Amino acid sequence: MSLHSFHLADMPLRSAAGVLVRPPKAAGLRHIEVLAGMELGAPVPTPRRMQLRHLAVFAEWAEEEALEAFLARRPFGRALGTGWHVRLEFLRRWGSIRELAHLPAEATRTDPGEPVVAVTLARMRLPELPRFLHWGRPVERQVRDHPETTLALAAMRPPRTVSTFSVWTSSRAMTSMVFGRDGGDAAHRHRAAMGERERRDFHREFTTLRFRPRSEHGAWRGRSDLIPERKG
Which domains does the chain have, with CATH numbers? Predict the structure, then answer.
């Protein structure tokens, strides 16, 4: 059975730059996105916006054994093993990018009370970047500060690829945010940004993927409990 994984690790600048330019290949590795971490909502012209030493890696594997072999035997895999990662079971896809277009729209139904992981991946239209930042940064802060997220971050690979990753206490909490059903002043932000994207798309390609977390490994910034227990 295929498997997805998401990894966070700090690396020396030279090593990080190398894999950003030339992503690794390995047996059983179907697709990999190597990105530089970003702080959600951070001002654009600051080092917090693009953190080259902090890598975020999203990958699809033919089976779990391929991931295990990569982490144990490949230098980049061993470097990722010093950080944190979560192994993921695919649930749903909205939108499409070429490399992940084979994933079905829905693999299985989601229990509203179970924790979920959301990954977005986009290839930007560069002339639309100012609009994207104007509408996207308020949504970034909304997700970052949401009481039902245990981890929320963004990542990028110049010049066109941007991604977000968030862990939610429940599918119900995530969909409430998406459709603007939360209370407070921030509730409308995601819905407003999606309306602006429909008016004139920011992206050449865009997809949102939902996963069920299977297991987490290692620690990130002193935490090893980023995947919450099921509610109810």
Answer: 3-218 (3.30.70.100)
